[in-house]
Amino acid sequence: MSRPPADTPLEGRRVLLGVTGGIAAYKAALLARLLVQAGAEVDVVLTRGGGHFVGPATFEGITGRAVRSEVWEDIAAGTHVALGRAAEVLVVYPATAHTLARLAHGLADDLLATSALAATCPVVVAPAMHAEMWQHPATRDNVDLLTRRGVRLVGPAEGPLMGGDEGPGRLVDPEVAFAAVTAALTDAGSGTGSAARTATAAPTATAAPTAPSGPDLAGCRLVVTAGGTREALDPVRYLGNRSSGRMGFALAAAAAERGGEVELVAAPTELPTPPGVRRTDVVTARDMHAAVTARRTEVDVIIKAAAVADFRPEQVAPRKLKKDRGAPAVALVPNPDILAELGAARGTADRPVLVGFAAETDTAEDNGRAKLTAKGADLLVVNDVSATDAGFEVDDNRVVVLDRRGGRQEVALASKRVVADRILDAVVAWLEGPRGG
């Protein structure tokens, strides 16, 4: 485990660490060590469930401070509210489904929940649970409620879970949580500490949360498309592409975090739905066309990040094509051009703002500028998918954002979450800029 950098903003800051009853509670000791190494004063509240997995002596040895567990401890000192009042940031790591529900509904049935109600500082929550529990509608509603109140959620990651399961629900690594705590204090110091903030479900510890610009999309309704559509050849095979959906999901997560009301229209992908985002799953280009055009008049921004198939088989074989019958002749017909149709339907109006993507392999920017004009979009994000370190199926990207007034902005190689915020910066600038043009 790496040490935190020497210039962190945690020196002398009061951090309240809540540890709840998940199998990954042992990682909280590693987070506590990172915080202490960065100079923070760390108070630990260990719930009864958390105490089944790791003992108070571990945290006391790391922090040099007494661990608290019960409301009934130090009654005269008012510990049940004093810890929350004194904290400059509260981090719950791990946060079980039960803890999320208690925090969302303001219950005060133990010391951690009481401290959270008394806290007026930024709150960082790192969920950890089985995939089914994370994806349950009750948990999603609780996450949405917490996000709207300004709680910063980090994770969960996707990977191995208790009992041999695998999927979204894995606790993010201590370094990721440490970065979220640092960012919370940094934002609080710059006046943006109350902004809701949700990190995408990171597949690795390198997908640390980023610092968005704040709730600058509050009240804005967005549709974001993501992933690669599939066009059936027969009941088994399909024509597809390499898009993983990560860029679109990062955009949806970042837009929700910045206060937007986000509808994610997702082609097939195993990525979990970002907190605070509504999701519609589609398969084919025509499915996506129907889902997006149905919302055209209801939203302020449409971001077309999906890799949509340009063509589909004219005929879908009713049975699996057998190789012993030779290679089939497949006639293709064009799919609807969703972005071009949106541009034509909008005409001279300035809403919805249309953001397209161009995945190119050569003369990328020239092709992107031509597509921007031809489709009637306002912004077009160009990325060279021939690069091995960016684009499809990787966590990083580099893009150029073009606008129809001739503007151009380069976004250097960074995580897709960081790139998403830079794209949204351009969207916000367009929304706030002169109409039309």
CATH class wording of the largest domain: Alpha Beta
Radius of gyration: 24 Å
Sheet bearing the most strands, described? Answer: 8 strands, mixed
**Total helical elements:** 14
Global shape: elongated
Question: Which stretches are poorly predicted, pLDDT < 50 over at least 5 residues?
Answer: 190-214
CATH-level-4 superfamily name of the largest domain:
CoaB-like
Query: pLDDT average, as an integer?
Result: 84
Determine the oligomeric state from the structure: single chain
Quote the distance from N terminus to C terminus.
Answer: 52 Å
Q: Would you report the number of β strands?
A: 20
Number of domains: 2
* Helix content, binned percent: 25-40%
What would CATH call the architecture of the largest domain? 3-Layer(aba) Sandwich
Specify the structural class.
alpha/beta
Strand order of the largest sheet: 13-12-9-14-17-18-19-20
**CATH fold field value of the largest domain:** Rossmann fold
Tell me what you see in this structure.
This protein is of the alpha/beta class and 437 residues long. It folds into 2 domains: 185 residues, Rossmann fold (3-Layer(aba) Sandwich), CATH 3.40.50.1950; 212 residues, CoaB-like (Rossmann fold). Helix content is 32%, strand content 22%. It is built from 14 helices and 20 strands. Strands 13-12-9-14-17-18-19-20 form an 8-stranded mixed β-sheet, with helices on both faces. Strand 19 and strand 20 form a beta hairpin. Helix 10 crosses helix 14. The longest helix has 17 residues. The protein is elongated, with a radius of gyration of 24 Å. About 6% of the residues have low confidence.
